[in-house]
Amino acid sequence: MANGQQSGKENLDTFLLWKITQTDDTYKEMVYRGQLNRSDIAIACGFGKSALRQNPAIKDELEKLEDELREREILPSKSEERIEKEIRPKEFDQSATGNTLNKRRLSKLEQENIELQAKVRELERKLEKYSELGDVIGELGMMPR
User: Which residues does UniProt call coiled coil (predicted)?
Assistant: First the structure.
C-alpha cells in the first residue's frame, strides 16, 4: 500500500498526463461557474475531488492551467470581486454550528409532528366509529349484531 506522499505523487502524475491529453474543446465542455469542473477532472483522473483540494502540487498545477486557459480566453476572466474574495480570508461564522444543529432538530420535530398528526387522525376515526356504536347502545339499550 502506498503512503500519502507516494499516492500524492501518483495523483499529480495522473493529473499532468490528463492535462496533456485534453484539447481546448474538451476544456470548454468542462467550464462550470467560471472554472473547470472539479468533479469532471476527478472522475477523468480516477481520484477523489479531495486530491484536487488537498494536494498542493495538483492545486498549483490546476490554478496554472486555469490561468493559462483564461489567457487563451477558454475560461472567462476573473472579476475584481472574485479576486478580492479569493485574497480576503474567509470569516468564521460562529452561528453556523448552531444553525446546523437547529436545522437538524427542526427536521426531527417536523417528522415527529407528521407522525403524531397521522396518529391523531387514526384515533379520531376510531372515536367516531365507537361513538356511533355508543349512540346505538344508548338508544336501543342493547348491542347490535
Answer: 48-75, 99-133
